[in-house]
Amino acid sequence: MSKAQRSVFCKVVRNENKELILVDSNGVEFLVPQLNEGGSSLYKRAVAAANNPTKYCFKVRVSGNLTEGSIEFGRVPGEKFNGAEPVGNFNKPNGGLEQYQMKSIPTPTEVVAAPLEDDFLKFIHNEAKDLKPQMLFMNELKWKYLIRNIIRGKNIMMTGPAGCGKTMAAKAAANSIEGYTMEIFNLGSTQDPRATLIGNTQFDTKKGTVFSPSPFVQAIQTPNTVIVLDEITRAHPEAHNILMSVLDAGQRYLRLDEASDSPVVKVAEGVSFIASANIGNEYTATRQLDRAIVDRFQIIEMDTLTKDEETNLLQMMYPSINISSIQSVAEITSMTRSEVKKETPQLTNALSTRTAVEIGSLLYDGFTLEDAAEITIYPLFDDAGGAQSERTYIRQFVQKFVGSTEKEDLFNVEADTLDNPF
After folding, report:
1. Are 22 and 28 contacting, i.e. CB atoms less than 8 angstroms apart?
2. Are strands 225-230 and 272-277 parallel, antiparallel or unpaired?
3. Residue 159 contacts by C-beta under 8 Å, 6 or more apart in sequence?
4. Among candidates 214, 209, 210, 211, which has minimal Cα distance to 195?
């Protein structure tokens, strides 16, 4: 027999009956009456732990000896739960914590989804690839995985360099599935996360103080909605804390206030969340994501376009521009991406597809490649160091393409441009 346990760490959550329960690291649930005595200090601490699962958890320990002692409950930092030992032999003193174990089969943190119907499987594996927009150069497997996760109601995080098409892919996927709607929330521009994600309290002369729910609250209550959380790495930390229970597959709710009797908004069936994130030291205005937030997402890493893919994209967007000019743009952007990956690179940052598209639009509007480079390329590179600077290096490379392409006609007046997706 294993040694009797004297302490364990548990999460505090609310069950479907809104009772406060303890859950160990194996998902086993314990309904402790003392935690639900409204107004007590223990109850208030338990409510705080349930509302802030990453900040707090509970420690259950034996006070005194195993024969005549008692068990005590205390709130401790949430990280104590990480890697915690599950309840295994905690039946002393007087039944210990195991006396409160709920008899029903515990609900796992994430219920394994039932197999999709044959029609859905056929859609994902055979038809989804045909829904990908022609101008979205995304790996077919990743596109199929994105579609599958939306239908499953999973949370997806799109990562990759700036300007590689993360948000475009999220919008395209959401719009491609019949019966789904899309809502976009730019978390990077939120000054007041609580107002953006929950709502505001206002005073009405006739009704008094009233609560106005945010568009986000309305969106999560709409079935089959794809909610795009744009620029999640630029969001205020409070926004991350508010989203914790919303994104948790075992909770999927939003509490409108920290009070114990405050309303709880359930996430509707078929709602999925797609976040876009810029991760890396070069993104100085971003925040490092808490591991608990990242763990609530399935990661899809967007690839940068190859030279040929970028050439094709620019051709589709600006078919009237001479092909040699488009190839020159793709050659320049591709070089910067290859250069930054070298062991001793001459450049510290690469040109994005968004920049390539902007160069293409300038060429379409009659600017020369040399003009476009002066406006869009050179300012992105440091000119410190004179002849050895990054700007000198990129300028010398661009000069290889200036002249030969400028002498040719840039336009075919019979062709029209396509809309800019970036």
Report:
1. no
2. parallel
3. 166, 276, 277, 278, 279, 299, 300, 301, 302
4. 214
Separation of alpha carbons 243 and 252, rounded Å: 9
pLDDT in tens, 11-46: 999 888 788 999 998 889 999 998 988 878 898 898
Show the DSSP H helices in 26-117 as ranges. Answer: 41-51
Identify which of 130, 125, 186 has the alpha carbon closest to the alpha carbon of residue 151.
Answer: 125
Chain segment 354-386, per-residue pLDDT in tens: 899 999 999 999 999 999 999 999 999 988 888
Query: Whose CA is closest to 232, among 190, 261, 175?
Result: 190
Q: How far is Cα 220 from Cα 227, in angstroms, rounded to an integer?
A: 8
pTM: 0.59
**Residue in the block written with tokens 């406006």:** 375
Domains of the chain: 7-100 (no CATH), 118-301 (3.40.50.300), 307-399 (no CATH)
Q: Which two tokens stand for residue 399?
A: 């000069």
pLDDT in tens, 270-301: 899 988 877 654 444 456 677 788 888 888 88
